[in-house]
# Entry
Amino acid sequence: MNRVARIVLLFAMFELLPLGIAKSPQDATSRWAPFRYLLGDWVAEGAGQPGQGAGEFSFHPDLQNRILVRKSYATYPRTEDRPGFRHDDLMVVYRESDNAPPTALYFDSEGHVIHYSVAASPDNKTIEFVSEASSSSPRYRLTYTKTGSDTLTLKFEIAPPGKPDSFSTYIEAKAKRK
# Structure
């Protein structure tokens, strides 16, 4: 191969290199910066309308950092009024595009499917998931608040149909990183 052809080939390779870098997914630290404190595995204990409970949850990037996956379970002991039970759920946090705000889709073992909008506080210490308001179904709000380097609180609230801002606490919990 002559010298001119090699130089042209070399420039062509360098021209293509930035395109490959620009198309690579963002890493979890930049794409999910407000969620950074949530990443990892957690153990939680809490109380609320279902009773005293304990469980675990995790937030992990997946699909080359394009989404966050939260897996969670809580166990509630038997009481005089009901048998013990376990609640499992899965939530996927995603962005429709790199510049779009995050949204989430939630599924649980009770058959609930919830679409959430997601917002972080300006100081990135609170992440709030809020479902759409509806006159015919409840509205849900799930809030994680950083309380220390390895601790947080979470609160799950429900507003009745037709009263989208009348949230009542259903579950409150404290969690620590595993």
Remarks:
- Residues 26-177 form a domain with the Lipocalin fold (CATH 2.40.128.20).
- The beta strands are 40-48, 53-62, 67-76, 85-94, 103-108, 113-120, 126-131, 139-148, 151-159, 168-177.
- The longest helix spans residues 3-23.
- The chain has one domain: 26-177.
